From TrEMBL:
Gene3D superfamilies: Ribonuclease H-like superfamily/Ribonuclease H. PANTHER family: POLYNUCLEOTIDYL TRANSFERASE, RIBONUCLEASE H-LIKE SUPERFAMILY PROTEIN-RELATED (PTHR34146), RNASE H TYPE-1 DOMAIN-CONTAINING PROTEIN (PTHR34146:SF8). This is RNase H type-1 domain-containing protein. Pfam families: RVT_3 (PF13456). Residues 13-127 form the RNase H type-1 domain. It comes from Carex littledalei. GO terms for molecular function: nucleic acid binding; RNA-DNA hybrid ribonuclease activity.
Length: 148
C-alpha cells in the first residue's frame, strides 16, 4: 500500500575505524524537508561493511514506514551497483554478503525504490551521522510528520 505519492529521498553513509568500530547514519527527506534521521555506532569489519549496514538500516526503515517512492543515495558505488542488478548479488564480498543480499532483496520487492551512487563529497547531509555515529546513538523525527 502506498501511503503518499510524494517523493522521498534517503541518504545513508557509514564510517569505519580499526578494531571493528564504525558509525552509520541516514537522513530521510520528503519534498526537500527532513522527516527522519538516525545515527548510531555499529560493529563493522571494513569500510564497505559499515556502508552496507547504514544502507540496510535505511532501507529497512523506509520499507517499514511505507515511504514510497524513495530514491536512496550512497557514496558506495559497489552497493549501488549490487543493489540495483537484476540477479542476486553473488559477487559481493562474503563479509558483507548478508547485508547486501538483504538490501537487494528489499529493492527487488519494492519497485518504487531506486539506489543511486553519488561521490562522497556530494553526500553532505549524511556526514554528520557518519562522523558522530561511533560516539552516540540517536533516532529522531522532525515535526510535523503527516501521512495521508
Amino acid at each position: 500500500m502506498v501511503i503518499n505519492c510524494m517523493k522521498y529521498t534517503c541518504m545513508s553513509d557509514g564510517s569505519w575505524k580499526e578494531r571493528w568500530q564504525g558509525g552509520m547514519g541516514f537522513l530521510v527527506k520528503k519534498k526537500g524537508q527532513r522527516s527522519a534521521y538516525k545515527a548510531a555506532g555499529v560493529v563493522a569489519c571494513s569500510p564497505i561493511h559499515a556502508e552496507a549496514r547504514a544502507m540496510r538500516e535505511a532501507i529497512r526503515y523506509i520499507a517499514e514506514m511505507n515511504y514510497y517512492p524513495c530514491t536512496f543515495y550512497t557514496d558506495s558505488q559497489k552497493i549501488a551497483t549490487l543493489s540495483m542488478q537484476h540477479q542476486p548479488p553473488l559477487m559481493a564480498d562474503w563479509t558483507v554478503f548478508k547485508e547486501i543480499y538483504e538490501i537487494w532483496d528489499i529493492m527487488k520487492r519494492n519497485t518504487y525504490f531506486h539506489c543511486v551512487y553519488l561521490p562522497r563529497e556530494q553526500i553532505e547531509l549524511a556526514k554528520k551521522g557518519r562522523m558522530e555515529g561511533p560516539t552516540w546513538s540517536n533516532t529522531g523525527f522532525t515535526f510535523p510528520m503527516f501521512s495521508d
